[in-house]
């Protein structure tokens, strides 16, 4: 490290032309600058400067050495400029983790304009329906849904998404008409979980009556998209985020069961490893907040 400091002093002396001018630029005394040059020459065992009473000139070795020192200084300046850009503007690689259900329009609509507006920003996406370690995977920002475990992570609540009980019309056609939540126990349950049994809480929108059912899953899956395909294939009923099945409901591939009975909404959160987020993270949070709340 001392040698690097001496290289900086030497390059500054060459650029400024005198020891005194270099000392002023570096915030050092002229004698300290002279001492650093002498130690640099002693360490390299090469004379770098011709000294006269009126000026300094480079030796042949000094000229070659200066070119290398100038390259080091330029790299240092570029690194410093890069840090300033990271501090003030959304640049660099943005690493985002999200549930698989967000892999379609929601993230595209939010982040494509951000990338177009900031050419220095790149994006890497990780889609998992299970939580991953944000620190280990160097994730800048994660979208998480449902109940959040206590942790040192910083969570920002974006809003809530309605959940719907869904099934394929062909599956329902083979069953008796549904009028009460208890009848769900007689149907095939498809669950986004790691457990075979799942608790289903329902509340009647009119009377306020509440029902809690313990559902035994026929299909257990850790991927919401795969679960949706099983539901569309007529394998049973599942809980689906309303925002993700609008197209399927509109064209009749899926049907809502017991629409007067409501499920607790699904909380949507943005989670970051630290509160003092970099500009790229702050810009992404605002873009996601605007788009996800709009949807």
From TrEMBL:
Gene3D superfamilies: 3.40.190.290, Winged helix-like DNA-binding domain superfamily/Winged helix DNA-binding domain
SUPFAM superfamilies: Periplasmic binding protein-like II, Winged helix' DNA-binding domain
Domain HTH lysR-type: 1-59
Molecular function as annotated in GO: DNA-binding transcription factor activity; sequence-specific DNA binding
Keywords: DNA-binding, Transcription, Transcription regulation
Stored InterPro entries: LysR-type_TF_proteobact-type, LysR_HTH_N, LysR_subst-bd, WH-like_DNA-bd_sf, WH_DNA-bd_sf
Keyword Transcription regulation in annotation: yes
Keyword hit for Transcription regulation: yes
GO biological process: DNA-templated transcription
The organism's place on the tree of life at top rank: Bacteria
Recorded family membership: Belongs to the LysR transcriptional regulatory family.
Protein name: LysR family transcriptional regulator
Species assigned in the record: Pseudomonas mangiferae
């Amino acid at each position: 490290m001392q040698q690097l400091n001496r290289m900086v002093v030497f390059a500054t002396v060459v650029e400024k032309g005198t020891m005194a001018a270099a000392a002023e630029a570096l915030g050092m005394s002229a004698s300290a600058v002279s001492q650093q040059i002498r130690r640099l020459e002693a360490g390299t065992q090469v004379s770098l400067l011709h000294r006269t009473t009126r000026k300094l000139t480079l030796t042949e070795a000094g000229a070659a050495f200066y070119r290398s020192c100038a390259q080091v200084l330029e790299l240092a300046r570029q690194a410093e400029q890069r840090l300033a850009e990271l501090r003030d503007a959304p640049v660099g690689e943005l690493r985002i983790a999200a549930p698989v259900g967000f892999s379609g329009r929601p993230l595209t609509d939010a982040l494509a304009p951000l990338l177009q507006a900031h050419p220095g920003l790149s994006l890497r996406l990780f889609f998992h329906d299970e939580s991953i370690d944000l620190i280990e995977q160097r994730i800048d920002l994660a979208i998480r849904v449902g109940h959040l475990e206590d942790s040192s992570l910083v969570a920002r609540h974006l809003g809530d998404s309605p959940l719907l009980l869904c099934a394929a019309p062909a599956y329902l056609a083979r069953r008796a008409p549904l009028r009460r939540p208890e009848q769900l126990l007689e149907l095939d349950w498809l669950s986004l979980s790691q457990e075979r049994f799942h608790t289903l809480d329902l509340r009647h929108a009119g009377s306020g009556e509440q029902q809690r059912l313990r559902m035994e899953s026929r299909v257990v899956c850790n991927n919401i998209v795969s679960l949706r395909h099983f539901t569309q294939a007529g394998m049973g009923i599942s809980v689906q985020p309303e925002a993700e099945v609008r197209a399927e409901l509109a064209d009749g591939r899926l049907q809502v069961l017991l629409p007067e009975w409501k499920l607790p909404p699904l909380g949507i959160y943005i989670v970051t490893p630290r509160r003092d987020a970099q500009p790229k993270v702050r810009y992404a949070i605002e873009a996601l907040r605007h788009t996800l709340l709009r949807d």
